[in-house]
Amino acid sequence: MNYERMFERAIQSLKDESRYRVFTEIRRHAGDFPMATRFLEDGSEQKVTIWCSNDYLGMGQHPDVVAAIKNAADTYGAGAGGTRNISGNTRMICELERELADLHMKESALVFTSGYVSNDATLSTLGKLLPDCVILSDELNHASMIDGMRHAGCEKVIFRHNDARDLEDKLKSIDPARAKIIAFESVYSMDGDISPIRDFCDLADRYKAMTYLDEVHAVGLYGLRGGGVAEREGLMDRIDIIEGTLGKAYGVVGGFITASSNIIDAIRSYAKGFIFTTTLSPVMSAGALASVRHLKASRFERAMHQERAATLKSLLTDAGLPILPSVTHIVPLMVYNAELCKQASDMLLDDYGIYIQPINYPTVPRGLERLRLTPTPFHDDAMMAELVNALKDVWHRLDLRQAA
Ligand code: PLP
Predict the structure, then answer these.
(1) Where are the beta strands (DSSP E) in 174-267?
(2) How far is the CA of 283 from the centre of ligand 1 (A)?
(3) Rounded distance between C-alpha atoms, residue 201 and residue 210, angstroms
(4) Among 3, 70, 112, 180, which is least packed, fewest CB within 10 Å?
(5) Ligand 1 pocket: which residues have CB below 6 Å?
(6) Above pLDDT 70, what percent of the chain?
(7) What per-residue confidence (pLDDT) applies to 52?
(8) What pLDDT is stored for residue 374 in this prediction?
(9) Is the pLDDT confidence value at 403 over 90?
(10) Residue among 180, 248, 313, 342 flagged as catalytic
């Protein structure tokens, strides 16, 4: 048995497919986002502009968030001290949960260590608790939801992406007496499209199904108080469980669900991903709380974010670059080839100081590789002009496909 060789082979197969991932070592600068310093292997440093961060609003450097984190570290120390069941319940996390429940106008909330864990822990528990349950899942749901459904061990039925008609066909074919959950996202983060939430809720009512909505790429960003697309569309009360992250628009780390008190109590009591892991630290909880509170009250960041995204989309369209017609803040720039996508990303970084990770399989299907741009309120006109010029050069140098 040559174990080392087995691992080498696994790595080599990723390299052969041009989807071996390289993580560039960078240091972000609070107060100067999206600028960062890149550390090269030869020991030198390069100033780069980040164009692929999910810190969508730059809240990771917001003075209120940073101050709350510093203050919490000084006041409470670093860690939570254990799992919630053993000794990790802190007032800070309870306050955060009350704030999140209020954000989505639900009775209760539960915080997890990440959005991934919240999806995995919740869906796996729902599928086990509801007798003879079927989970109906959009075909493009995130890996964390897929894992949760797999761990639930119950039947899973996949419906076509954002397709209410296909979902209805699938619902019709299921015994009405069985428990059903429709699991979907609001903003799909690779294409930047939005699900027909209202249609899915109507179907849930008609076929007596529960609804589970991942708003990871929408919380903080949409709705009057940042409650997500369901808030914007006045549908929060029609969703049974809203799930979100504290790590993207809120700029910190952690995940959560909000729902009725009974649902939250059941997940709290049964979910392994909640019970058997150390609680999010009070320091990060304090940062997240400051961020959620700020974005509930301030609409400035959301308005700027939408304006910046619209401006970038129009600049890229004018330049003939092939972006997908995203209706959100996410700007997918298509390359359609893994190797070229990696080369384009390397060239942008090495030659132009522009940092955009290549997106390839399994995050997107093979042949649909892309650069995923995420403009923030901190990307100004000069940065956008610099980006568009660099992209035009790279597209020319690599002879990449233009917009149709
Ligand atoms: N759900 C979706 C749709 C995501 O895209 C992600 C992460 O990218 C997650 C959940 C996981 O969230 P987190 O990064 O907080 O673990």
Answers:
(1) 180-185, 187-188, 193-194, 210-214, 241-245, 255-259
(2) 21
(3) 9
(4) 3
(5) 114-116, 119, 142, 144, 185, 189, 214, 216-217, 245, 247, 255
(6) 100
(7) 97
(8) 98
(9) no
(10) 248
